[in-house]
Amino acid sequence: MSKQEVILCKELESSLTQAIEKCSPDRLFVLTDEHTHRLCLPQIKDIPVMRQAQEIVIGAEDVNKTLETLAQVWQALSQQGATRHSLLINLGGGMVTDLGGFAAATFKRGIAYINIPTTLLAMVDASVGGKTGINFNGLKNEIGAFAPANCVLLDTEFLRSLDAHNFFSGYAEMLKHGLISTPQHLDELLAFDTEQPDYVLLKNMVGRSVQVKEDIVEQDPKEHGIRKALNLGHTIGHAFESLALAESRPVLHGYAVAWGLVCELYLSHLQAGFPQDRMRQVIQFIKENYGPFPFTCKHYDHLYELMLHDKKNTAGVINFTLLKDVGEISLNQTADKDTIFETFDFFRECMGL
Ligand SMILES: NC(=O)c1ccc[n+]([C@@H]2O[C@H](COP(=O)([O-])OP(=O)(O)OC[C@H]3O[C@@H](n4cnc5c(N)ncnc54)[C@H](O)[C@@H]3O)[C@@H](O)[C@H]2O)c1
Ligand SMILES: O=C(O)C(=O)C[C@@H](O)[C@H](O)[C@H](O)COP(=O)(O)O
Ligand SMILES: [Zn+2]
Question: Which InterPro entries does this chain map to (predicted)?
Fold first, then answer.
């Protein structure tokens, strides 16, 4: 897999023009959800190279990251004359870049695509690294492919219209990048004024955060080893997210990751010696900014069953990425059912549930 080009744009217009010209497509398509169609497409629609772009609009948010929506995109591409030499631009958050990336990877066995992420989460994480896919059978990203975008164009100006919930959702993946990289990066994240964001500083932090991901993906594009570090917080986080979806009370992906981090930092403390003061510091930040995920001990078995579907697992054994300390990663860790249930008890207790 070749190294993916990720550009922190000074000027989106020229970067996008160059990126499209480099692909020399016969036809151009732009995929948005209903919100990014209204809020973000106007920023690029009038760029001369975009004038011929045919628009495909899908429903917003993870409830629409489905096979039905994927089929709508395939249908639109097919009916509007897309060929193997066409180019798809995904303009949106991680839902659009995941689903659009998978549509591009599968349409006529694969066409070129460019990601222009418009949420914080998609900028630092989802748009980069080639994991594409959809939710299926009540499970997160159950169907998908590794298929990197030809190019990823980051423009933090899009963040100005993002609401606080989606800001914090993306910030959870940044915290994850802080935890798996360096104490300095984690400290700057914990110290950032999230109530009145300094957008210049945020742009720099986005650059550092996405670099953490790029470095790991470059070493291990298909998650045979070190890429599992990017899944910290997700073994339990995805179970929370799927449970919430099943109970028709969906939560944002990054919130589920933040709550998953609380549990997996506790597990890291129990099993890998992660320092208690650091654990408490990060949990305090999450408690203050994300609130609790309500569940009772009646949910434990369901959560455990969901964790049995984690993609890192082998032969029915649940696989965790844990930390010995900030930046000291311990891959392929396991925990027995009693210990996992103890982490749920810990979570509920420290969240005041
Ligand atoms: N492929 C990966 O490596 C990877 C990594 C992390 C997360 N993900 C996936 O990403 C998805 C979550 O992505 P997300 O958090 O970006 O959510 P999202 O794409 O659902 O976007 C969240 C909301 O913000 C709106 N929005 C987008 N840009 C906006 C803007 N600039 N201003 C105002 N509103 C805007 C969207 O329309 C949507 O309503 C999940 O499906 C998750 O599984 C994938
Ligand atoms: O890029 C990766 O690798 C990640 O694990 C990043 C995660 O933040 C992301 O949510 C990813 O989609 C999870 O992948 P999955 O393989 O657990 O479905
Ligand atoms: Zn994630």
Answer: Dehydroquinate_synthase (IPR050071), DHQ_synth_AroB (IPR016037), DHQ_synth_fam (IPR030963), DHQS/DOIS_N (IPR030960), DHQS_C (IPR056179)
